[in-house]
Structures are given as structure tokens and as C-alpha cells.
Specification:
Number of domains of chain B: 1
Structural class of chain B: alpha+beta
Largest interface: A-B, 47 and 48 residues
Strand order of the largest sheet of chain A: 1-10-3-8-6-5
Structural class of chain A: alpha+beta
Number of domains of chain A: 1
Number of strands of chain B: 14
Order of helices and strands of chain B: EEEEHEEEEHHHEEEEEEH
Radius of gyration of chain B: 17 Å
Number of strands of chain A: 10
Number of helices of chain A: 3
Strand content of chain B: 25-35%
Order of helices and strands of chain A: EEEEHEEHHEEEE
Shape of chain B: globular
Largest sheet of chain A: 6 strands, antiparallel
Largest sheet of chain B: 6 strands, antiparallel
Distance between the termini of chain B: 29 Å
Radius of gyration of chain A: 16 Å
Shape of chain A: globular
Number of helices of chain B: 5
Oligomer: heterodimer
Amino acid sequence: MALSESSLDPQQASFDTVLGSGLGFSHIVRRGETLRIVDLEGNQAVDTLFYDASDPSERYSAVDTIRTQGGIYLSSGSPLISTEGRVMLQIVADTCGRHDTVGGACAAESNQVRYAIDKKYMHSCRDNFLLEIQQRRPQLSLRDLTANINFFMNVPVSPEGELHFDDGISAPGRYVEMRAETDVIVLISNCPQLNNPCNGYNPTPIRLLVWSA
Amino acid sequence: MSDVTEQWLVDEPLRGGQMWSRVIKRGQVLRLTDVEGSGSVAALLFNADFLLERYNMPDTLKAQHIARITTGNVLYSDMGRVLCSVVADSCGWHDTLTGLEDAAASLKKYGPGDYQTLRNDWHRNSRDNLLVELAKYGLGKRDFGPNLNFFVKVAVDAEGKLGWIPDNSKPGAFIELRSEMNTLVLLSNTPHPLDPAPTYRAKPVQLGVRWAGPVAKDDSCRSSCPENERGFALTEAYFR
């Protein structure tokens, strides 16, 4: 795991907010700007998608990112690759060490499959994504939701092809930072999942900061 | 072998480089045979009755705690329903994680392979092939999710690094997908981007479609895990 700290000063950030669990969020991060996501209380999962701000048909691609970097976990140095094969952002600092891009987002419907038919009422990341784009990003719709990144989440895959949702390896105050290589829309759901250890069964707030180029 | 009737509704070749699509109706089986071995077929799946519903890689993997596809696994849509079940597989591993080859990667790897020079042996790639097939159903770039790569094995080591596994698929290897919904299947028979072969090679595949027998209560895909029992129940409820 490649742990690396950032020298950026939160006092100098041009954008700084705290997002409670169970909430959606979106923001345009300009080319050269740096986005930091802070896991304030530890073991939170932050479901994240990126779209090219000028042509959202180009978007983050989990499989192109995995293939391009030759590995499934994201950390410092990982390029976040678009469906057109371009680097959208680059992870430039990471004090957690491993982030997932295989496990996707929870949804009312997949919760029924994974846990119980009667879990349909529970809040989910997909609903956060959909409400955020319905309210604030009219250029996006359901068909634009694709396999996302889960920052701070630990989803190991074995050489035999098994996949597990393990306890998180994050801790209070750990963060991941990425620099935009083009103007992007970042779409986030601060995960409300209560049925598995991805949040330590206790969804908590995150802090989002942006520094100008 | 799966429990299916032997009368073929479709029995046709999928040449190296070719793309293909068809609605495999609920209760039909699609068989793909890797005639010469070491094949690679990229696939996207949609609910033919409502195209916004489509194969969802993460939901498929996390419901079954898997990172590859083989017999007994099912392919989930984003709506918690089962699009297809893998009722037979003589190969043992089909890739879900490593995506498509595009024109730039193909050119870099194999050099020029234009139609003007090579006619119908030109170097087609999975990204462009699937883009063409998507367009036939009113779909486009926005509808590309992570795809399947039949007959391809890319393993993940303890550090998460990828490793291409050669000769995963032997001559005559096949996989059978039973549709549990009316499933639009898009295929591209084109080289996988991680295939280390230095020259463009796309192997012949044979496609067959036939009716399956009724799905038994103790069906091996349905009963392979409690998640799949619920996935089948939700799929049945949709058709009720």
C-alpha cells in the first residue's frame, strides 16, 4: 500500500464542507484543482462517480481504470480513467492506502437481493445519486450511473476469484486527494448502508475540500 | 450439460472480428462455443422490454461474492433481477473486471489494420463494435457499463495486481446462458486488450439458441446462494 500525505493547507481551500451520511452531493472540479475527501470518523464508504463536465457521455470507467493500472485497488498514483481512455483525475495523496472500485453502490433493489426482500425501504446510495442529479445535474440520468469508486472501502478479491466485503482499513481523519486533469463533475453519495461492514454499521460524516490550481 | 431441448432456433458462426445481437427470450438458452480455444467475446446485456435496465457488474459480483463468472452464477440487472443464469460452462472462468479494447489500443498493439487493405479481415475492436450494436437499439456511449469477457481469465493476486492467464479456454469450450428475462445480448468477438499475442487474432465462435426446460425449484443457479433465491423470486414477481 502506498501511503502519502499532502502538503495542502485546509485554511487555503477554496471550498470546504461537511457532508452527513445518507446525503448526495455534486460539484464541478476544474482542471488543475485538487479534491480531498476526509473520512472524519473512520470506516465510512464514499460512493463516487466522475463525468467530463463538457461532455458527460465521457465518464469514469472502473474497468478501464483497473486494466490501465494493472490492479483492482486504488491508491496514490492511480489514474482515474474515462470511458474514452483518458486520465480524468490522478490520486495524488492517500493516508488510507486502499480504495475499492468493484463493489458498486447500494440500491433498494440490490439490498433486497443481498439481505432480505423486506429491506427495500432502506436508504441507499443509488437513491442519493438519483436525487442529486434530478435536482442539480439535469444533463445526467439513470443511464449515466455506472460502476463507481468506493473511497475508504475494503473489498478484497482472492486469486480464486472470490470477493469479500471486509472491515474497513480506514480510520478517523484519513483522507484521499485527487487532482483533476480536466473539468469534471464529481457525484458523491455518502453511503447510508446499515447491513454490512462497509461503514462499520455506523454511517458517519465526511469533509470535502477543493484547492484551486 | 444443462437440461435443455436439443432443437436449435439459431445455429450460426460468429466470425473473428464480428459483432452480433439478439433478444434471448425468457426461457431460451444462448450457447457460445469457442471453436479453436483462447477466444474472447465481449458482452453487454439489457432488459429488452425496458432498455434502461441492464447488466450491473458490481451487483452481480457482490450478491454472489465472486469476481468471475462460471456455472451456477447468475447475471444481475441494476434492478435486483436476474437477466441470465450460467447453466453450463466447460471453461470455468469468464472475466468481469477488465473491459474493452478500443481503436487506439488496437492500433498501438497490432499496427494498422484498416478495411481498405484487409477488407473484412480488418482489425475491429470491441468498443467500436459494441457502439455500433448499441446504436441499433437507440443506445450509445452513455449506455456502456462494465462488460463481460467470455472465455477470458484475468486473475487478481494478493496485492490486487492483474495477471493474464493463457489458455483458459480449450478448443470446443462453451458457456450456456439461460435467459430469465427477455434479454438483449450484444456481443463482439474481438481480441481482449490484455491478450499478449503480438498479432491480431480473433477466433471463430459458434452461437446457438434453443429453448430451455422449465426452471426447477431446486435449479442449481437459483439455489447456489440465498441471494440468488431472492433474485429469482424478484424476477418471477416482475413477470407476474
